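Most newcomers find our protein records easier to grasp once they have seen one. The structure tokens are whole numbers drawn from a learned vocabulary of backbone shapes. The record below serves as our worked example for the rest of this section.
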Amino acid sequence: MTTSNTVTLINISVIILIVISSSSLSNAGSPALFILGDSLLDVGTNNFVLQAVGKAKYPHYGIDFFNSTPSGRFSNGLNVADFIARVVFGDSVTSPPAYLSLFHSGKYSEKRLVKALDLSPRRGRWRRWRRPTTGSNPVSLVPRENPAVGINFASSGTAILDVNSAVDQALALSDQLSQVIFVYGNLSATIGSWKAQLLFAKSPFFLGVGNNDVHFFALFRAKLDPDKYIDSLIETYNYTLTTLYNIGARKFGIISIPYIGCSPLMRVTIVGGNCSKTANDLAQQLNDKLENLLGNMTLYLKGMVYSFGNTYDKLVDLYENPERYNIKNVRDACCGLGRFNAMTNCHPLAVLCKNRDEYLFWDVSHPSQYAAQLLVEAAAYGDSTYARPINWSKLASL
């Protein structure tokens, strides 16, 4: 082969690489967002689940939401799911709609699915959406609710283990997984299986579950062997992620188990009002094994990427340095009654604090809108202290 021909081949190769790279960059970002989890992420699912114990459809929930309207979120306003949506799509959006809102009078509507995913039924493809931003603007600048592209499957009371989900009669994690598979099947029939897999591959799947498993262990099941208990949780988590991977998911945003032993719910169960060491220790052990699982999965699941959001250590920081964030109360719920305002959940007759941004907790176990924003921003834009191996913003931009 002559030198001239060699140079020509090299030039062609470079051109091909540039074209491929340019194509990849032009398609960077996330066309949709899918969320599975518990009450930290629920945006109204349980309003459609008649038997569910946990519902946030009454005042004072949503007092700082649009039009001060309860939305099914366990928050005074926006929750973790909403701030995740802003990381993915920009400051003007809220969480994708709840999966069960795609049903009307008990009947599933394919048109609602198409609308939720911003699909063009004629062309069978999605339209461009807002790109990720570098930060979050104050909530007050957003004039109205604007659901992001995607679907939220989260249900208050959901646990990793089905038996724990049954305590609150919530949708089990396995139920949410079945719903995702149902959506995938409908998408395949609408736009074709290849395009459905591509949509799933390019869209981040955020999972936040395990809080209730830790709660129930600390409250009711502390006599169980903690190592065996954690192993059963990890086994189920592994199955969930693997199943999502098998239907196309590749980008996983994982929310760790927070430092939940110091919540008002945990404090009120202890005579001295201290934190539950049992809950915090179990949460830490579960997080360690979960992060190890994620690292191992990437070794044999080709193309899988993840971001482990370390909300545990961020919550510790909020407890130990509240003045840094202008938080004045890290012990009591903003809304409730009795000791630590945790003897009841937030309801119309509960005591309501005035300065909600000064409280770490909104009710017995959920962060205030402000605290939720701090937790998400740490994992989204922080360093490896709060997100590993990449942060959530980077994950969304891939």
